Amino acid sequence: METIATAATIDIRELNERIQRESAFVNLVQMELSKIIVGQKYMVERLLIGLLSNGHILLEGVPGLAKTLAIKSLASTIDAKFSRIQFTPDLLPADVVGTMIYNQKNEEFTVRRGPIFANFILADEINRAPAKVQSALLEAMQERQVTIGDTTFKLEEPFLVLATMNPIDQEGTYSLPEAQVDRFMLKVVITYPTIEEERGIIRQNLTGSFPTPNSVIKTEDIIKARAAVKDVYMDEKIEKYILDIVFATRTPKNYKLDHLTSLISYGGSPRASISLAMAAKAYAFIKRRGYVIPEDVRAVCHDVLRHRIGLTYEAEAENKNTIDIINEILNAVEVP
Question: Is residue 237 part of a domain?
């Protein structure tokens, strides 16, 4: 049976020093990305959290907020393969995963791999494609493998899917089922840049000087960093804090939040607890710390839970959204 590390069994100072050394590349990646992407630090940080904790990201934002540029640039800094799939209503699963092609010369079928065979996948406007295509992508995300014909192919690590959704133009879209949305570790909502940031964007575009990011780490370094993220120390009190937050979405009454019972149709799944713990560890790693503090949990909580809480008609009638509910839970649950 696997033993759970406690403060008594590990040297926190030594662990902290190791994490500081092993997380040094985070600053290099952020510096390279800041050359290309003006602003959007929040989005870049969330991309790194997803990458370090082996989780996929659902990104919601209006067009033109550098979503494609961000993931393409991240792939460049890591010397990894990038692939972009534009989801459309006529897309087929074979367009994503690949298919069998008949070779007349050799009189045999050969496998033609689809764009899913990359380290970084940008699934642009995922809700534009029908359920079959969404399922093909989400199966690859969950199983980390693809079956074409009779052959199963393992997908290369790291494997990160960034799926985008446009919140304004919903005509001709297919909404993602809750069970599929739950497979995304984070749902990040990005907003417009500030006036100063947009001035920088205008100047960069007018001069036409677009710097290219340098490759500062390799994919093997990401695999090693993921192992280090798992080693980040999480105290039992922090574990209880995470569980209390997630359980408050399911049984608000137990946390003196009786009024939320009529607003929540379903709460976070066990995936929510796992994702919250992993994201908090990755956030501590990015902040170059070897241990998780309550602020780490609070920093990632909205992105982990916003797509995992179902609202009732009553909540919509009262103009309550999931962020309001998460804020109420964070204010009510005791902080260790």
Answer: yes
